[in-house]
Amino acid sequence: MEPSFLESSDFAATQARHLMQCWASQRGYAPIPVAETRGCWIHTSDGRRIFDLRSAHECINLGFNHPHVLEAMRRQMDKVVYVTDDFATEPTARLVQKLAHLCPGKPDKKVFLSQSGASAVEAAIKAARMYQYNRVFGGPIRPDDIDAPRQYPYPYKIISRYRSWHGATAGAASASGDPRRWFQEPFTVPGIVFAPDAHPYRSHFCNGSEGVAAQLQFLEYLIEQEGGSNKVAAVLIEPVVGSNGIIPPPPGYLAGLRKLCDDWNLLLIADETMTGLGRTGRMLALEHDGIEPDILVLGKALGAYCPLAATIFSETVSRSFDDHIFGHGQSFSGHALGCAAAVASLEVIEADGFLERVRVDGEYLGKALRELANRHPSVGDVRGLGFFWTLELVKDRETKEPLRRFTEKYTPTVVGRLSDFLLRERQVYVPSDKFGIWVVPPLVATRSELDFVVEAIDAALDIADAELG
After folding, report:
1. 354 C-beta neighbours (distance < 10 Å), count
2. Among 107, 236, 274, 355, which residue is least crowded by beta carbons within 10 Å?
């Protein structure tokens, strides 16, 4: 029997009945019906106006329905929407050229385009391993290269960090320290090693420059114990940790990590799926430290309103595949419509004054959030940069005991209650599965909208304070 035509009031119930919601038990799924979206706001069918403080999974850096991007998409839809990469389209060519120049380093890079950050990370991991294989076996074999450690296995290990999230596909999830990795165990992909986090607020070492030195010294010990350049292919990082706490690295850490990779002939993979394209007030978060990666991953906001991600390979890495097969691929790679949206989005971000305003207003937002912390004892730490902030909630500032532990990502806690309060009472949408309050507005948010958000968070923190007795 054919389903009957849906009345507008029925589509939310129909979606709840048939759609599998991400990272959630399905009973009780009750999506809010949306009539339209504009700027930073979601307008519901029942007349509510909700501020999206997570930028639609951090994908909508330019807010909803940006006119410049939509116009570019309309123009492209009348020309070419998609062809395989056996053919070329103008927006695809323009985008990969722009991305090759955008990433630090020599401009003669190559770009693999996919549809999600996870798939882009998969490409990065595969390419790093294939690059190392080509490095070991691709040229003439010298007599001193044929001992067993050089022959098998080739460098394949990826060093990641515990506070990381790189996506839900098998390889990306396996390389993630996030509790969501546990859903895949014990069938995680082999060859992943986790290092301690570069977390100034919860450092496993001492603080300051001595702590950075100790962190890097331990990481070098880890590399050596895992086989050094004979067995380790790459180090995978988020330049600013995203889902697991919005953690900017301590000064000197990224520069030291870059040197460590160079010393051991390892590739440095930077996953900027969440932090790229202006989120931190720079086009790339790496620019704050002047670091050049070997492989850069972009996603989420790249395609604006189209699923699009990119894996950008340095000239050194990309040339490794001139005469060796790049053993990876994906349907819809180089999708012309998504590339047209991405080019238009980059034009907006690169316009005079755009990123400067994000930096200035980001400082304004950070100052306002720190003032909240002075009034609310449940706030242990305020950290971030640009339009990328979090308030970490604690039971005790002295001991730093968290109100939500790392093992309680899907356990009902006060963080979930704060999220419910903000949505129900203050018309502000924030995720409920983070380890604090997520403050990630679209980059087009005005100061009055930021003030609205801060006022709402101020009220919500009273709930957290009450947990302290």
Report:
1. 15
2. 107
Model confidence band, residue 410 (pLDDT cutoffs 50, 70, 90): confident
pLDDT at 141 over 50: no
Measured at the CA of 426, the angle between CA 420 and CA 431, to 5 degrees, comes to 40
Q: What is the CATH number of domain 8-65+354-466?
A: 3.90.1150.10
Q: How many CA atoms lie within 13 A of 207 on its CB side?
A: 3
> What's the distance, CA 396 to chain centroid?
29
* Per-residue pLDDT reduced to its tens digit, 163-211: 999 999 999 999 999 999 999 999 999 999 999 999 999 998 988 999 9
Structure tokens at 225: 């114990």
Report how far residue 414's alpha carbon sits from residue 403's, in angstroms, rounded to the nearest whole number. 7
DSSP label of 443? T
DSSP for 368-420, please give it. Answer: HHHHHHHH-TTEEEEEEETTEEEEEEEEETTTTEESS-GGGTTS--HHHHHHH
Tell me the backbone φ, ψ of residue 42, rounded to 5 degrees. -105, 120
Of the candidates 364, 334, 348, 343, the one whose C-alpha atom is nearest the C-alpha of residue 446 is 364
Residue 32 to residue 455: CA distance in whole angstroms: 24
Q: What is the CATH number of domain 74-350?
A: 3.40.640.10
pTM for this model (two decimals) = 0.94
In sign, the C-alpha dihedral spanning 363, 369, 370, 371 is: positive
Q: Look at residue 207 in the predicted model and tell me its pLDDT.
A: 87
Question: CA–CA separation, 200 vs 222, rounded Å?
Answer: 20
H runs (alpha helix) in 49-89: 55-58, 67-77
Q: What is the pLDDT of residue 10?
A: 86
Q: How does pLDDT run across 248-302, given as a tens digit for each residue?
A: 999 999 999 999 999 999 999 999 999 999 999 999 999 999 999 999 999 999 9
Which residues are paired to 311 by β-bridges?
112, 297
Identify whether the C-beta of residue 44 lies closer than 8 Å to the C-beta of residue 50.
Answer: yes
Cis geometry, peptide bond prior to residue 186 (ω within 30 degrees of 0): yes
115/230 Cα distance (integer angstroms): 33
- The pLDDT, as a whole number, for residue 267 is 98
Domain boundaries, the chain: 8-65+354-466, 74-350
Which tokens in the block code for residue 381? 């730490």
The mean pLDDT value for 391-418 works out to: 91
Q: Is 163 in contact with 198 (CB distance < 8 Å)?
A: no
Looking at beta carbons, which pairs linking 71-76 to residues 24 or more positions away fall under 8 Å? Answer: 71/344, 72/340, 72/341, 72/343, 72/344, 73/305, 73/306, 73/337, 73/340, 73/341, 73/344, 75/340, 76/336, 76/337, 76/340, 76/341
